[in-house]
Write a structure and sequence with these properties.
With about 160 residues, the chain is of the alpha+beta class. The protein has helices at about 1-15, 60-65, 75-80, 85-90, 125-135, 140-145, and strands at about 20-30, 35-40, 50, 70-75, 95-105, 110-115. It has a six-stranded antiparallel beta sheet with strand order 3-2-1-6-5-4, with helices on both faces. Helix 1 (about 1-15) crosses helix 6 (about 140-145).
Length: about 160
């Protein structure tokens, strides 16, 4: 599938620099204020199709979704303040996260790339590197996110039923 190939290429490049242990591509679904996992490096712990809603902190949403800016939690303390699943993240050897929003041509967030690595591994330079990779591959990433429907189709009309 082209979507998986696009996200796999991003994962491969980000593993080189700034480095990644856990990687996910999360589609933003504004109708539900949720993030749906489309790609993951760890399918057993973070299966494709899983959604994050209430466990997302308002501060994170404000930065990444509303302000459309990357988010950095460089250590476990910062990570714990934002993610309810910080214990699982730590079990995987991660203690730092970078989240980079992916914006379409209208500057709407269509998705977020999540990079996680060891505590103290990420700096502002790491964030700039991740943002540069997103910008270089923006058209492909937007297409990969947009190839997945975000709304449940409306119920089909029942023949002979009055829909007025």
């Amino acid at each position: 599938m082209k979507t998986d190939t696009t996200f796999q290429h991003a994962f491969d490049a980000l593993q080189q620099d700034p480095g990644v242990i856990l990687f996910t591509a999360l589609q933003w679904i504004p109708q539900r204020s949720s993030l749906k996992r489309l790609f993951t490096s760890h399918p057993a712990e973070y299966p494709v199709g899983g959604e994050k809603t209430v466990e997302i902190s308002p501060g994170w949403l404000g930065t990444v979704i509303e302000d459309k800016k990357p988010f950095l939690a460089a250590d476990l303390t910062a990570l714990r303040e934002v993610f309810a699943d910080s214990a699982l993240i730590q079990q995987l050897g991660c203690g730092a996260v970078i989240n980079v929003p992916v914006l379409d041509q209208q500057r709407n967030v269509v998705g977020v790339l999540a990079l996680l690595d060891a505590e103290g591994k990420y700096t502002q330079h790491s964030v700039a590197t991740a943002v540069e990779l997103v910008n270089t591959n923006l058209a492909e990433l937007v297409q990969a996110f947009e190839s997945h429907p975000t709304e449940v189709p409306a119920a089909t009309e029942v023949p002979g039923k009055d829909n007025v």
